[in-house]
Design brief:
Arc Repressor Mutant, subunit A; elongated; 11% strand; 5 strands; 188 residues; mainly alpha; 10 helices; 3-stranded antiparallel β-sheet
Length: 188
Amino acid sequence: MQTLNHTLWRTCRVLAGANRIKLLRQLHDRPGQNVAALAKALGIGRPYASQEMRRIQSRGLIRPTKQGVAVVYLPIPDPQVPTAAPLLKAIRTALASRPAERDADMASIAAGLAHERRIALARSLMQLSKTQARLLAEYPMAPCCLQLHLRTLTAAGFIAMRERMLSFQIPDHPLGKALAKLLQEGHR
């Protein structure tokens, strides 16, 4: 079995999926469910639910456990994935303190850092506020691509524009705070 590179942007890409966030909500509310129960709760097919659970598991955010002949899932971080424990703690905090209707906020926040370039842009802005022209000089790309990345980071709450200057900010959400801390620690 091939192991995935546990990069932050790949983990964020997984967390940017609305159904994966819903599956995490189900496991938070009722730990120890199998794929059939999770699929039924979300109204999705078992193969699709199984695939989504494998994606979440690949990022170290859940642990499959045998219960008799069934495999059930628990929201337990994989100790071999350095980002898993702090992210799962933030996800649990958000799920416990916010209504299910707000779960989509986590997918939006994660989408902000679900690309290598957005991670690089966010890190650059953590160091110093900059103009778009300065970012383009640092990270050569088509201006329309930069605009797309900046819109995604802004929608996620990671950057703000003030008087033509872009600056990094920490979203006021447990997941946003955890992701910002992981960025500061140098996770990529």
